[in-house]
Amino acid sequence: MKKHILGGAICLFIGVLSYNNSQAQFTLGAQLRTRTELRDGQGSPLSLGTKPAIFTSQRSRLSAGFTGYRFKLGLTVQDVRVWGQDVSTINRTTTADNNGFMLQEAWAEIMLLDTTVKNKSLNLKIGRQELNYDDGRLLGNLNWLQQGRRHDAALIKYESNSWMLHLGAAFNQNKENAAGTIYNATPPGNYTATTNGGTQYKSLEFLYLGKKLAKGNISFLFLADQFNKFHTDSVNGAAVKTWDEGVYNRATTGLFFNNQFDKLGVTASAYYQFGSNASGQTISGELLSACFQYAVCKSFSAGAGVDYTTGGLSSSGRTSKAFDPLYGSPHAFWGLMDYFYAANGFGNKGLQDYYIKTKLKAGPRFQMTLDGHEFFSSSYIPGGVTRRFGTEADLVGTYAMSKVISFEAGYSHFWNTASLTAPSVKNITNAQSNSNWAYLMITLKPELLLK
């Protein structure tokens, strides 16, 4: 697989060099990003006496783009691994658990309107691609994770000076079947890329309508995703999933607003989710969010906000009120320690997040942010404990040595309550009450443009 992808990249490169068209444009880029982390309760608090983890992960990417008359091509290959994952004489990247080499992007975009039409475009984009809309809360590329997120999809894009209408669709299968379309929704390696509990969607469709404002945008999203139905059998006393014909349908719709009013930036969103989740349970969930950021001076800004997602069950106990934030980038919103809506669940309780954010720009190359979060459950926690989950503080500093080289360091601390580690939430016995996380990330990202 690795040889085939590299061979395809080389063939593409040779083909581009031999393409003799004055309108052609070729871009070549690379990225090497290493991140050393100290995890002492990142994701979930550790039990008392448990030692913290230290490791270095690395993302290595090679990307190429080619633009010609009425078309664009994009290709990104990447290798993601932890230092020492492979011993020095045996390569294990072909195993299910250590498949770090992958195709991040491989897409073509066709201009359906002639390029002489300057103020309107109608394009068809097909292939493996990132979907990143608005603030990335529901559809984002999850760039923080070394492996990122991508979709195998088709996308029709109509855009004018102030409006954009995107229609997207995806349909997943495990292989070239001779009959039927049953989809095994748990990929090899069980990479939990979404909050669907490691369950990948079988199909997805969305409509995105956006309008540019003076210094921002307003948009409407309707997204439907389907999950393969299943039933559970008991094999030797263990529950085993068997995939069946048919799908569970889920839909999410809502509005997003973002604009800058002089020194005040305002962002707000509201979404409603209904249908059935990946487990076949009827759902009725909501997400509400609002925040502001005020520029005190050219180098310093501060703001505050609140996020609210519903959770728990309805009064009848038959409907889940747990909102699922789909395929976004939770690391950017609900605390850098990823306690909520990331790989580690918290019992579908819903979340109230009250936060303050500050940003200091000490010159054109250095930036520092300091954020504080106060987390509460949106639903009742059995046992009579408080709904308060705890407090988190996040400190991040970035330094751009040049356009190619940048350094980033961060430290986070979480003061948790017994509610967070309760059996119905994270279910951790004898948990420590203070958790820490620190990292140092170095990124090199050179780019080359040829015409």
Description of the structure:
This is Alginate export domain-containing protein. Pfam families: Alginate_exp. The chain is mainly beta. It has a domain at 130-333. It has 1 helix and 19 strands. It has one helix at 2-17, and strands spanning 25-40, 53-68, 71-82, 101-111, 120-129, 151-160, 163-171, 203-213, 216-235, 238-261, 264-276, 282-295, 300-309, 351-361, 366-377, 388-400, 405-416, 434-444, 447-450. It has an 18-stranded antiparallel barrel. The chain is globular, with a radius of gyration of 23 Å. The relative contact order is 0.13. Residues 90-96 and 189-193 have low confidence and may be disordered.
Ranges with pLDDT <50 over ≥5 residues?
90-96, 189-193
Based on CA atoms alone, the radius of gyration comes out at 23 Å
Tell me, briefly, the overall form.
globular
Q: What is the count of DSSP helices, taking H or I runs of 4+ residues?
A: 1
H/E element order: HEEEEEEEEEEEEEEEEEEE
For the biggest sheet, the summary is: 18 strands, antiparallel, barrel
Strand % is: over 45%
The tally of strands reads: 19
Mean pLDDT: 88
Helix content: under 10%
Head-to-tail CA distance between termini? 31 Å
Secondary structure class reads mainly beta
Pfam families: Alginate_exp
Protein name: Alginate export domain-containing protein
Organism: Chitinophaga oryziterrae
Domain Alginate export: 26-339
